[in-house]
Specification:
Elements (H helix, E strand, L loop, with lengths): L1 H10 L10 H9 L3 E10 L6 H7 E2 L4 E11 L4 E4 L3 E2 L4 H8 L11 E3 L7 H4 L6 E2 L18 H24 L3 H4 L9 H16 L6
Parallel strand pairs: 1-6, 6-7
Antiparallel strand pairs: 1-3, 2-3, 3-4, 3-5
Amino acid sequence: MPVLTRAQENLQVLPKRPSDNPKEIIQLIESNDKIIIDATERPHFRPKNKNEQESHYSGKKHQHTVKNTIVTDTEKRILILGKTVPGSQHDYSLFKEEFDPEKELFKSTILFVDLGYQGIKKDYHSPEKIRIPHKKPRKSKNNPDPNLTPKQRLENRKMSRVRVIVENAIGGIKIFHILKNRFRNKKNNFSDDVILAASGLWNLKNSFTVQ
């Protein structure tokens, strides 16, 4: 792993991490007209500690997992890889921890996210640059049969065609079984090391560099 990581660093294929130099992160985001963000979960062994069990249990996946935020461009290049956290953490709360809402991150870049990032337009600067699907209205007495308008459905389809790019990139790194099957290695930070290496290999396979 150390040899692989050094080789990937030399080839400049490793994605940036949110903890890297903030100016470099902003420059990387602004160098792209469009970026897509999503979170990915992967199976993890069941911790012995009760508190860790609860934090790693994902109600969405109904198993113990760990999670990362993935940021890609429209070419499927993995630009930024978030830290590895227990699977119970919400996608959007993780995103806010790693990308400070007080910073103007998207003033010149269009950002695509899914419905798991509700509230992002209120919390971040330049909401006009943020693309999030329209949410179907709740059923109520005044609206017993809630539906999106034809225009909203059309806009959702257009956004979906862009957002699928990050899902393809996530599928690309999960060709490695260590990310697809239940992770059993208990070495400190190794679950983070393997997804970083897999992301670097994905970028290398596609001749992507991250500068």
